[in-house]
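User: Please predict structures.

Assistant: First:
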Amino acid sequence: MKKFRLKALVTALAVSSLALTSSFASQAVVDQISSQIEVNYSIIDNHAASNGVDCSGLGADWGSCNMTMLKLKNTGALIDSSDWEIYFHSIRQILKVENEAFKITHITGDLHKLEPTDKFKGFPANAETDISVVVEYWQIFQTDVLPRWYVSSTDAKAKVIKNTDTEDLSAFSSPIPEGQWKRTLDDNNILMTSSSRFDKNADVALVTKENLRGNIIPTPLEVSIHTKNADLSKGITLKLTQTKAHAQALSAEAQQALEQRFEMLGIAINPKGYPISLNHDAAAFSGKMAVSGGYTLAITSKGATVTGFDSAGLFYGVQSILSLISLNDPKEIATLDAKDAPRFEYRGVFLDVGRNFNSKAAVLRLLDQMGAYKLNKFHFHLSDDEGWRIEIPGLPELTDIGSKRCHDLTEMTCLLPQLGSGPNSDNMGSGYFSRADYIEIVKYANARQIEVIPEIDMPAHARAAVVSMEARFQNLSKQGLNEQANEYRLLDPADTSNTTSVQFYDRKSYLNPCLDSSKNFVNKVIKEIAAMHIEAGQALKTWHFGGDEAKNIRFGNGYQDINSAEKVAGKGSIDQSKEDKPWAKSESCQALVKQGIVADVDHLSSYFAIEVSKMVDAHGIEKMQAWQDGLKDAKDSKAFATKRVGVNFWDTVYWGGSDSVNEWANKGFEITISNPDYVYFDFPYEVNPNESGYYWGTRFNDERKVFAFAPNNMPQNAETSVDRDGNNFSSVSDKDWPGAQGISGQTWSEVIRTDYQRDYMFYPRLLSLAERAWHRAPWELDYVKGKEFKGGETTYVDKAQLNKDWVIFANTIGQRELAKLDSAGINYRLPLPGAKLIAGVLETNLALPGLSIEYSLDNKDWLIYNNKAKPTITGDVWVRTVSPDGKRFSRVEKVDKP
């Protein structure tokens, strides 16, 4: 017996030693590849289908694909091991690998795995290995490439490949070649270079400060500017009317928020300073002034008086005084009289922290700027496939697992990496707001007259929740706690549906809407978040259901069944017999179909929205809101239990949105205009590959385009903008239009990983959003049923007035507002200079006049550009814009040769 035990012990030690040796060897390979291999990602041909590649046969949506070259350069000794896997992120599907030594496997979402085949002979020392791949769609902006490729191996710790561990994408990706910036060969957009930008800015002249005197952003309904100035050099004091009613009208927290902004702008709070009297008198308002946020303002040399319809009116009246302050001038403002009220009840900003996380400090900075520019709805996207971002008492798995991303293929401890986050849980894709954090955010928003609207996206885009609750189920089941394990489970274990979500996840992307446990989960989350709002002093008034994109993209119009007898040219051919609609094989959902509760599984998203609305109503929440496609199968707004039902309308105008928006409004839904082609701030500012963002809805949304948007007369926009491919379009609707409730600017975060990047995408176009949300311009026409606007043909819009207004607005931003953003620590985008060499002289301009421009003859040493002494240039020259505080610069651009 002793000999047997000794033999077993020796055997166990030998196996353990072998495993340890193997683990050390695996880690050595990972360490070697991560430190020696350098990645280079190069776009070769964005028009591959036009150049002989069978994109349709490879199954590409609408037969669109591109050729890309992956270069793996070994900077050290030979790597001959095959015991490795390189994981990388690609928002585009990899359709084909044209190097037989490698294969690429799609894991989930954007995560792919590159690994060797039996043809792999190693990475030669100090040599490059080329891997040509065919990729779906096109890649025309730098941010189509994602960072933090990483290496893994059996029993080894994953490590990021060194040259990809950066936010400087040029460190591992080549510039997009000339001509490849076009989405298609007949793309008619204008590439923004120094010369084309100069032409675009030609009608935006620098105006004098006197022409900007008394300007308030956003523009008031009525304003009369006087000749004298008010002196704020001794500071200001806010004097509230001491009545019970008024004490309720402006909280101490709101007053503190206003005083903090004065101090940020260099104006002291001084009891003996310039007096600003605040009076609450709702009875003094009537007509269009008698709405929340309405105010009158009288500024004299001796003091100012704000009379508000409500607390928001008082707050906004003071913000208008703050708007007049310039950090570049003496501490004085114009005297004036103003009457003002918002055009829209809903003036929103949408922030996605689900895809990539942002700090609490960044959220609070955003709320500060929303308050300053009179934006009042903070749509907080707290969950998505890639992350769950709010603590829910009683469901710790949501944050323990769903808020983290790391390399755990079982996903029992975290979600798999996505969107360039890398393999470690301390990455830019991980993080959440604690209960205390969220309460603080709501309090902060409330003091700035902002309603927080939480969104928990469902039934699609729910993967973070689904995976978290599956881990919960597994852990509790192992403990024999079966009832608790099933209480909040979000998957039907019998559902084997083969589905592909919009962002390439499988059935775990969809919460099952037919399970009682799913309803338990939703009710629990609503209850806990509503309790946080109560504790924060702002009752939860609106619940956002999400609801978007609950579909299998393989059934989209750009695909066709490979087995079909009649093929359509230009569509991707796939085997659709292997594809399922979401929940098609769920027994629970099929039971609802058989019972006649829903007509088809296609209707389940709207069915679930109605069910959730009952819970929302039961919690005393007045309104439910959703992305419009999530409610598409509901007859009208009366199908829902809540008193009010709103939709974020996100069809593009040029694809028929000017007509379909009317259908939703006429069904009784409150419409929040959220069109991607105008107010998606995760889209690029201009058509240039070096800009950032997604671009499926338009190639650019700059400050001027947002400013020119007519949200309450959709067809009008055909005269002032172009479609995604730079073409004119026509727009008309034969339906009645009761009007929008408001407008919202969206910033989704798939390719926004840092607070800095978020600021860049939000600002300064957020100011244009605020202008259109608050003020209706005289060139915005009334909607007329049946009136057709044709880009390049009709001339109904007064473009002269539009351009005149834009020049003043652009100068106000450039000469005054950007300095305030500097002071607030906002890393906004600086506009690149337009520049031309005309007869050898450097001519420059800016979209936002008033900023300084610098030029360089060697791209190293920089000189201030003086418009009164323009330099003569004989060789190359580069230009850049400087922030008002002199601390930041725009992207550098070489000036085009004549």
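Second:
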Amino acid sequence: MPDYDFRGIEEKWSRRWEEEGIYRSRIDPGRPKFYALTMLPYPSGDLHIGHWYAMTPSDARARFLRMRGYNVLFPMGFDAFGLPAENAAIKRGVHPRIWTYRNIERMRGQLRSMGAMFDWSREVVTCEPEYYRWNQWFFLRMLERGLAYRKMAPVDWCPSCNTTLAREQVVGEDRRCERCGTPVIRRDLEQWFFRITAYADELLDFSKIDWPEPIVTMQRNWIGRSEGVEFEWQVAGRPDLRFRTFTTRIDTLFGASFCVLAPEHPLVDEIVTPDRREEVERYRYKSSRESEIERLSTEHVRDGAFTGAYAVHPFTGEPVPIWIADYVLLSYGTGAIMGVPAHDERDFDFARRYGLRVPVVIAPPGWDGRPLEEAYTGPGRMVDSGEFTGLPNDEGWQRLADAVEARGIGRRTVHYRMRDWLISRQRYWGTPIPVVYCDRCGTVPVPDDRLPVLLPEEAEFLPTGESPLKRDEAFLHTACPRCGGPAQRETDTMDTFVDSSWYWFRYLSPHEQDRPWDPEEAAYWLPVDQYTGGAEHAVMHLLYARFFTKVLRDLGLVDFDEPFLRLKNQGVVLAEDGQRMSKSRGNVVAPDDLVQRYGADVVRVYLMFMGPWEQGGPWSSTGIGGVHRFLNRVWRVALAALGEGLDEADASEAEEAGGRVREIDLVRAMHRTVHRVTADLERFDFNTAVAALMELTNLLMRAAQQGLAQSAAYRQAVERLLLCLAPMAPFLSEELWHRLGHASSIHLESWPEADPAALVDEEVVVVVQVNGRVRERISVPRGLPEEELARRALESVRDRPYVAGKPVRRLITVPDKLVNVVVG
């Protein structure tokens, strides 16, 4: 029997499913809803194997739940704004819109080839004005509530191209512009932010969601809540100049031997002494070329420059030197720290490098008063701390905090590692920020009735990468909505993470004109029940999505707190050599080629079989060949029910497997398989679900070879096999279902139920003891009467030396478990 014609089958059923609209989701109050969502792709031009690995198992589980009786929504769209489209415009002379839509068209076809049950009637493309209009509307609502604001913030800047650069446009360890090779510097520009820190404490509450612990931990660490004391330092000799520091270790205040300002701190220019200015400026330039990641790296050299100025210690009155160092960031905390080298490892390294004092104020256990060889960060009694000396440091913390507040120089407060979300991008291909700047009225929001602010269709892209919006006179110059006078539009566009922070809401009614979504659809479908995608989005997309949902709640648009009730992350598909796939290594596996060779079902099932989904693993060309053979076996055992014989190879393989198959064996195996696959798909354990189906297929092959293919038990087992396989191999199962005589789609069928009675083993293993010691184990029918059980147990040990010739004094039986023969 030849292999099945996967090309003809896939083309036929793709067309039929689309024509019949079997995957369109509609409100149905009579069924429980289930909103299944997988992360939408960026239209780069081709789906890679990672897309398939994320999406096809997600589709299998959505199909499974649909067969379990849920009304499932499983939509798809494209996260279509982004820098690659601009790069294509610059390098190839293709407008970003043309490049993007060309890629979407190709990827849409690739997505359809997966056989996924995406509801394409709900497709969202985020670069469409009907979508990004609502980005602008949300921005205006946040602006009204003080959640959107503008301030100075650093960007990577190429002095030669005279433009800002995205992170990926800064290359090399020495941070140069990828286009011209000029050293990149950091430069401050006025930019727009979303005040995500206003929701920091709420974002630390994960009690309403079931998410993987690593994601929760990453978000918790990213938010980084710290309780401490913020207080004021005065610059010596300059009573008009002060700065503030925040510390979680106020108990070490008497150990502060220096202060450090961020190099970009505005106070630096005012306090630096003439003899130190040249060195300070040299250091500031050096740090302006470093990224924040580099500056905060634990491997980064702790260096700095002395400003020549001093601060006055708020309790001792002693002069404390003020330095600048790049491990302090203006955008984090207050942009200034107190240096306590004896009790902070970073400060200790800095003090040793520059020969600064290292006064100990928390005594380590057994400390003899000698200088420390390393920072001590543990608990202890306070020493050399004025009136607080002798206190346990935890008590001293509270007392010193009280003293700071009593003096009116500071207060207890909470700081967060997380900073507000910078949404400004000096790019063309993004959502225009709906604000104009008027000399008379200042910053003026664009009124709702003038949304969307459209990107101009024509755009000139220069090799420098400068945004065309800055040179587009028709876009740039406008009338002030408030006074009617001349005004200029904001030329920054929004971070593309804004697009992906609410897209699942828009799936509910993607073409709604007067509101972001239909409230009736939202009341039925939301929130998302299950989200799937990569763990690499833990502290960007997933955090922003949670923030956005909480803002929408406060705007009265939804009545829940969290966007995704459950989250599941897949692992990574590696190359056969165990390395990450990359074009440069030449080890990329192209799914299109695999689909052409094996068919979509084989690729789908192999990706689910290759190992635990959340772990990923290396690709195996031999492994996918094994899955190909498995699905062809399914084809043959199913058609055997219609009277078509097995191949000689199949028959030979079945004969070698040995063992007589009875109809009752088929029935029991069928129910056990249904039970296993049901439990596995509930847990996303796709690999073991496939393994169970392989075992049933092998049993059916043996049964067919032994002449059972025309039996009712065989037919029933084949149909259950197809129903369980349908979520994973939708094309093959649909074709075979119809060949078996069914008129409706297998994907509209109910999931099979396992008979609990069939899950119980016919036989049990009973332990036989002699005088309390285990001597034998015997298999007997379950529920065997005690007299017969005792007889068989005695028979199994009668001729053994420890029983032979000895009188049996007693037989103790525990039905289905144990018999103890007492002799002697």
